Amino acid sequence: MTCGWVPKLDLYVDGELFGSELAEVEAHLRACPTCAADALSRLQLKRMTQAAGHRFSPRPEFRHKIAQSIERRPRWTRRWAPAFAAVAALVLMLVPAAVWLQNLRNEQALDELADLHVSTLASGNPVDVVSSDRHTVKPWFQGKLPFTFNLPEMQTSPFKLIGGRLTYFQQSPGAQLLFEVGKHQISVFIFQNRGELSRLNSGSSLSKKLAFNTETWADGGLWYFVIGDASPSDVHALGELLRNADR
Amino acid sequence: MIDRRTEAESFETLAMPMFASLYNFAHWLTHNREEAEDLVQETYLKALKGFVSFQQGTNFRAWIYRILRNTFLTSRSGLSVKMTVPLDREEDAIGLPADTPEAVLLARADEQMLQSALESLPVQFREVILLCDIEEMSYQEIAEIVGIPIGTVMSRLSRARKSLRELLAEKVRGASK
């Protein structure tokens, strides 16, 4: 006849009994030799199975392969790779587009200044203040501009100051000074250096605009643009004069 | 939301220490090194892919073993196992009488005989013995992995051990003839 405690023996051997239930089974095993022998036999088989069961070992190269596959293929790269690729492609497309757009804006701004220069020359009264004297021209702008600027001494240079006029560029007031070198007339535009203007050019640089030679630079919170049909060296020389005016 | 890189690292931290055990279990199920490697590899890839659905703080070991077992059951050898081994009624198992002469026979059994007996067991018996005795898992973990109630784990284990003892006794008797 089977002892009623037998169904508990596997639980006992497998460590699935706790508290009072465990105490009861242990008490029974001390009292019942048949169950004690049965439990011992089950424990013996369990221990043997445990020893025999650890039989197969993975090859080291297989372990390495799995470890690498986990390292090499983290979820986020696989899941987000298409998104990253799309964003990267978009950035690659947008960056040249932004650069192109900025260049276009710069071109348009410089075109506008070139137009101002041309329309000034075409006017019957190109300047509002006619004077070759810098001490006349500069004070004329007082009260008309929210800034002031220095004009160089011209007497030792080939340049002649013709005069100046108030101008507007991108909704801001500025000074347009007209100079002459030989038969060539050169405009010098001076504006407050705002963010947009500073992006037009940084530092002194010469370039061509509608066959005019131009030079731009920023200094002391002001932005300068020189344009004329004089030679590049003359345009540059005038630029140098202006840059050294207050030094 | 946890950082993806941390996620990959934590998966590695949790999964790699189980590599040898998972491989051993896979080899016992498949009886074949190549298939065991395929099974383990597929398990790791599935687990890595599904790691986002794994709830941190729950039993990772039970989770990855369940993946391995389910992967095995849908593999070629797993499908053939399901077809050829019908499930017996589980409730017949509780309350098996202990055959005392078995203890004598078991004492004469060696490791090779036991391995051979384990290999001969139907996979449904083999897996619960492997999980309980070799991996030292609780009935609760085994229930999670195999997808059966704890009561069924107990009865299946009991029947599996009875079969193992019988097979082992046969081998011992055969060897002593």
Short description:
Chain A is α+β, with helices and mostly antiparallel strands. Helices cover 52% and strands 21% of the residues of chain A. Chain A folds into two domains: 6-48, no CATH class; 98-243, Phosphorylase Kinase, domain 1, CATH 3.30.200.
Main sheet summary of chain A: 7 strands, antiparallel
**What would you report as the Rg of chain B, rounded to the nearest angstrom?**
18 Å
Structural class of chain B: mainly alpha
Classify the oligomer: heterodimer
Number of domains of chain A: 2
Architecture overview:
The complex is a heterodimer of chains A (247) and B (177). Chain A has helices at 6-13, 19-31, 33-53, 60-72, 75-122, 134-140, 195-200, 232-243, and strands at residues 129-130, 160-169, 172-181, 184-192, 205-209, 212-219, 222-228. With 247 residues, chain A is an alpha+beta fold. Chain A has a 7-stranded antiparallel beta sheet with strand order 1-2-3-4-7-6-5, sandwiched between helices. In chain A, helix 1 runs parallel beside helix 3. The radius of gyration of chain A is 45 Å and the shape is rod-shaped. The N and C termini of chain A lie far apart (120 Å). Chain B has 177 residues and is an all-alpha fold. Chain B folds into 2 domains: 4-84, RNA polymerase sigma factor, region 2, helix turn helix motif (Rna Polymerase Sigma Factor, Chain: A), CATH 1.10.1740; 90-176, Winged helix-like DNA-binding domain superfamily/Winged helix DNA-binding domain (Arc Repressor Mutant, subunit A), CATH 1.10.10.10. Classes of the chains: A alpha+beta (247), B mainly alpha (177). Chains A and B meet through helix 1, helix 3, helix 4 and helix 5 of A and helix 1, helix 2, helix 3, helix 6 and helix 7 of B.
